[in-house]
Design a protein that fits this description.
It is built from 7 helices and no strands. By secondary structure, the chain is mostly helical. The longest helix is centred in the N-terminal third of the chain and has 27 residues. Helices cover 78% and strands 0% of the residues. It folds into 2 domains: 50 residues; 134 residues, no CATH class.
């Protein structure tokens, strides 16, 4: 459905000479990706409000999206699969975050291993992205640095006595990124760069 709406929009843009025909594929891809992203993030924010976790959801999204952009990881084949998995996963995260906030030792150990995985792997080069050697090295460097910065922020906020639930959401963002990287590797959803 999203694709049909975007295709109609791009067709109108082309007919009105806003874009050139040669740019059509680019605009379709960008607008479909943007629309799907807005739908998924918007739904997560609504779920966050319904569960009285709006601020925690924003915190999770900031940590997760900034890191996920650099680490890559598992991607579903179709938007509806991605959307469904995202919503189910996020509802699960809301449940797990409350538990982890009360069991900080489990959260710390899991977070340690998640950071370690991201430090080792760096980035998963998904076929849809297909980075060249230089881009991949730059992304790996960026992901490794960012995960250390996010972990440092979590440790600092924990020491300063921040609400453990928020710390839990931040930690889960890193843990989820590392899990998605591992799933992508297990499913061989990766392009090897020579």
């Amino acid at each position: 459905m999203v694709e049909k709406i975007v295709m109609q929009l791009v067709t109108q843009m082309e007919e009105r000479k806003i874009i050139e025909k040669s740019s059509r594929d680019y605009y379709e891809y960008v607008l479909i990706t943007l629309a799907e992203h807005i739908i998924a993030v918007g739904t997560m924010l609504i779920i966050g409000m319904l569960f009285n976790q709006f601020i925690a959801t924003i915190i999770f999204l900031v940590f997760f999206l900034s890191l996920r952009k650099r680490t890559g990881g598992y991607h579903a084949d179709k938007f509806w699969q991605c959307y469904l998995a995202t919503i189910i996963t996020y509802i699960g995260i809301i449940q797990v975050a409350a538990i982890l906030s009360e069991k900080s030792y489990i959260m710390c150990v899991t977070l340690f291993f998640a950071v370690l995985i991201i430090e080792i792997i760096g980035t998963v080069n998904h076929p849809n992205i297909d980075m060249d050697k230089d881009e991949l090295q730059e992304n790996k460097k960026s992901a490794r640095l960012l995960v250390l910065m996010e972990a440092a922020v979590i440790i600092l906020l924990d020491i300063l006595g921040m609400n453990q639930l928020y710390v839990s959401y931040m930690s889960i963002a890193i843990i989820l990124c590392s899990l998605l990287m591992c799933v992508a590797k297990l499913l061989k959803q990766e392009v090897k760069v020579r």
